[in-house]
Specification:
Length: about 475
C-alpha cells in the first residue's frame, strides 16, 4: 500500500476534473444565465481539494500492485460528491445534497436514473453539465487521464484495468497504455461528433444535438427534456439514436481494429458482436409482436417497440413511451435484457454479452458431459479456445453479481419499505447502469427515501466498476498488503 502515491494521483485526477466546471460557463454566458457563480464555486472547491492532496505529496513514485483499485474507488466517490456541487447550490434545482449526489453519481456512472423534473425549464448550462458528466463517465475519466497524463507511468495500466469494463482487461490495442487510451478516446470523440451532426441533420438544434450526442455515445440516457427522445416526436431523430446506441454498445477495441485495418468486414468476424446483434434483433421482433397483439393507446408497435428495445437492451435508457405500462411481459423482458447489456469494452452496462455467451457455452458443455461422461469438449469463441481460467473468472463474476443483486434488493426493500417490483427494478436499473425501472421508479427516483438513494448510488458504482474493483477493497487481505 502506497497511500502517499495514491493520494497524489487522486489529487491529480481531481484537479483535472475541476476543469469540467468551466465548460458549462460558456453556455451560461451565451444564454445569459446566472449560474456562473455556482460553477465558479464548484471549480474553486474542487481545484483546491485536488491541490491539497497533490502538493504535499508531489514527486516521483509509481503505482504498484492493486493501488489502482483504491484510486478508482476514491475517484468515483470523490467525483460523485464534488460533481454534486453545482446541482446542490443552483437556485433553479432546489435539491437536497443526497439528491444532488444521486444525480451526479448517476451521470458519472452513465446510469441515467434521475431525481430531477421540469428539465425543460432548467438553465441550459446546468442541463449541459449533466450531459457532460455522462460523456466523461462513458469512456471513463480515468482512461482519459491516462491518455493525457503519461506522468502516471506504469500506474496508468493499473487504472486502465480497474476502470475498463469486460472480462479480459490485459489486452492493449497499442504497445503503450497511453496510446491505447488515446486511441479509444479518438474513436469515442469521433462517434460523438458524428452523432451530433446526425442529430442536427435529423432536425435537432445545436444545443440538443450536442447534449444528446453526449448521452447517446456514453449510453447514459440523460436528456434535456422530461419526455426524453419522445419530446421530439421525430422518427429520424429516433433512427439516429438507434444507430448510435447500437454502435456505442460495440467493443471500442473492435472499432479501433476496423478503423486501423480499414476493413468493415472485421465486425462480422467477431463472435460477441454477432451474438449482440442477434439478441437485439430477436428481442425487437418479440416486443413488436407483443405490442402488435395488444397495442396500447398512442403506441406504434414497430417504431416504439424497436426504439425501446434497443434503448433498454443497450442500457441507454432513452424513452419515447412509458414502457413500464406496456402489456404482457414486455416491460419485464426489456428489463431482463439490460442484465446482459452490451459488448465488453463498450460504454454499455450489464453483465456483458461475452460473459453471457461464455456462460451459455459452459452450460452446453456440461450437458454434453452428462451424455458423454468421458468426452473432451473444449469451449471456443469462434475458432479461439477459451481457457478454463477465464471461464472460472466469468462464473465467479456472475455468482457474485447474482448474490449482490439479491442482497441489494433485500436492503432496498428493508430501508425504504418498497414493493418488490420497485426494489427489483431499481436495483437492476442501477446495477446495470440503465436508469428507468418499473413501479415507482419508472419515471423518476425523487420519491425514494434518502437511505435507499445512498444504497442505489453504491449499486451504480458497483455496476460501473464491475463489482470486483469495489469488493476487493472490502477484504482484509487487501489492506494487509
Amino acid at each position: 500500500m502506497h497511500l502517499g502515491i495514491i493520494f497524489r494521483v487522486t489529487g491529480t485526477l481531481l484537479t483535472f476534473f475541476s476543469i469540467t466546471f468551466l465548460i458549462p460557463v460558456l453556455f451560461a454566458l451565451h444564454y445569459g444565465e446566472n449560474t456562473i457563480p455556482t460553477f465558479a464555486l464548484a471549480f474553486i472547491i474542487t481545484l483546491t481539494s485536488g491541490l491539497l492532496l497533490w502538493l504535499p505529496l508531489r514527486g516521483g513514485g509509481d503505482l504498484r500492485g492493486g493501488d489502482g483499485f483504491l484510486i478508482t474507488a476514491l475517484f468515483y466517490v470523490g467525483l460523485g460528491i464534488f460533481g454534486a456541487i453545482p446541482l446542490y447550490f443552483a437556485e433553479s434545482t432546489q435539491m437536497s445534497f443526497v439528491d444532488a449526489a444521486f444525480e451526479s453519481m448517476s451521470g458519472l456512472t452513465t446510469t441515467g436514473a434521475t431525481v430531477l423534473s421540469g428539465l425543460d425549464d432548467l438553465p441550459k448550462s446546468l442541463l449541459f453539465y449533466r450531459q457532460l458528466l455522462q460523456w466523461f463517465g462513458g469512456m471513463g475519466i480515468i482512461v482519459l487521464a491516462v491518455a493525457i497524463f503519461p506522468m502516471l507511468g506504469i500506474g496508468g495500466m493499473q487504472l486502465y484495468r480497474t476502470e475498463s469494463p469486460g472480462p479480459a482487461k490485459d489486452n492493449k490495442l497499442t504497445p503503450r497504455i497511453t496510446e491505447t487510451a488515446k486511441a479509444l478516446w479518438y474513436i469515442y470523440l469521433g462517434l460523438t461528433v458524428a452523432c451530433a451532426l446526425s442529430y442536427m441533420a435529423a432536425g435537432m438544434d445545436f444545443f440538443d444535438a450536442l447534449s444528446h450526442s453526449f448521452s447517446t455515445v456514453a449510453i447514459g440516457g440523460f436528456s434535456t427534456h422530461d419526455a426524453s427522445i419522445g419530446y421530439f416526436q421525430n422518427p429520424l431523430v429516433e433512427t439516429v439514436a438507434i444507430v448510435f446506441m447500437v454502435l456505442s454498445g460495440i467493443n471500442f477495441g473492435l472499432h479501433f481494429i476496423v478503423w486501423r485495418r480499414r476493413n468493415p468486414l472485421q465486425y462480422f468476424q467477431d463472435v460477441e458482436l454477432r451474438a449482440y446483434l442477434l439478441i437485439l434483433v430477436s428481442l425487437s421482433i418479440i416486443v413488436v409482436a407483443l405490442l402488435t397483439l395488444d397495442t396500447p393507446e398512442g403506441v406504434s408497435p414497430i417504431r416504439d417497440g424497436i426504439f425501446q428495445t434497443v434503448s433498454i437492451a443497450t442500457t441507454t435508457g432513452f424513452t419515447t413511451q412509458n414502457f413500464s405500462l406496456w402489456p404482457s411481459v414486455a416491460p419485464v423482458l426489456l428489463l431482463l435484457a439490460a442484465f446482459a447489456g452490451g459488448c465488453a469494452g463498450s460504454t454499455a452496462g450489464g453483465i456483458k454479452i461475452i460473459r453471457v455467451l461464455m456462460i451459455y457455452l459452459q452450460g452446453m458443455r456440461e450437458v454434453k458431459r452428462l451424455i458423454h461422461p468421458h468426452g473432451v469438449f473444449p469451449i471456443k469463441l469462434g475458432n479461439t479456445p477459451v481457457g478454463d481460467r477465464l471461464i472460472e473468472a466469468v462464473w465467479s463474476f456472475f455468482s457474485v453479481y447474482a448474490i449482490l443483486f439479491l442482497l441489494m434488493v433485500t436492503f432496498v426493500i428493508f430501508a425504504g419499505d418498497l414493493d418488490f417490483t420497485t426494489a427489483f427494478s431499481a436495483v437492476g436499473a442501477c446495477l446495470n447502469n440503465l436508469g428507468p425501472g418499473l413501479g415507482d421508479v419508472a419515471l423518476n427516483y425523487a420519491d425514494l427515501p434518502a437511505s435507499v438513494k445512498w444504497l442505489l448510488m453504491f449499486t451504480m458504482m458497483l455496476g460501473r466498476l464491475e463489482i470486483f474493483t469495489v469488493l476487493v477493497l472490502l477484504t482484509p487481505a487487501y489492506w494487509r498488503r
